[in-house]
Design brief:
Helix content: 10-25%
CATH superfamily: Quinohemoprotein amine dehydrogenase alpha subunit, domain 2
Distance between the termini: 31 Å
CATH architecture: Beta Barrel
Number of strands: 8
Strand order of the largest sheet: 3-2-1-8-7-6-5-4
Order of helices and strands: HHEEEEEEEE
CATH class: Mainly Beta
Radius of gyration: 13 Å
Length: 123
């Protein structure tokens, strides 16, 4: 369960809080993205790849029962909080117009995992 949660949740790493008047600048990141999540530490599956879409600075994923909040800032900064039951993951990073990368960490019960993520624009 933790590995599925973290894999799906880390997709949300493409989010960060931003001011409402930055909406037009945030649209520079709108489109479809392929995100690779890699576990480096902990007892989680090694890697996942997911497709997400970014619209008006918000990140959307239609793949499960994971709750996440966050946005992409006008400068591409990414930060997110993801949760499912008692499990959660936090991540940070940065997007350019074509790709991005960052770090993530999470916990479910007594298990902790962490690693990195990369993203490529698909459309």
């Amino acid at each position: 369960m933790i590995s599925r949660f973290l894999g799906a949740g880390v997709l949300a790493l493409l989010c960060v809080a931003a001011l409402p008047d930055m909406a037009s600048a945030q649209r520079a990141y709108d489109g479809n993205w392929s995100v690779l999540i890699v576990t480096q530490n902990g007892n989680c599956d090694r890697a996942y790849r997911y497709g997400v879409s970014i619209r008006n600075g918000g990140v959307y994923y239609d793949g499960g029962v994971v709750n996440f909040t966050g946005r992409v800032a006008a400068n591409g900064a990414v930060s997110v909080r993801v949760s499912s039951g008692n499990a959660f993951a936090n991540g940070t990073g940065r997007l350019s117009r074509r790709d991005g990368q960052g770090r993530w960490s999470g916990q479910s019960g007594g298990s902790r995992c962490s690693g990195y993520w990369t993203a490529e624009r698909r459309g």
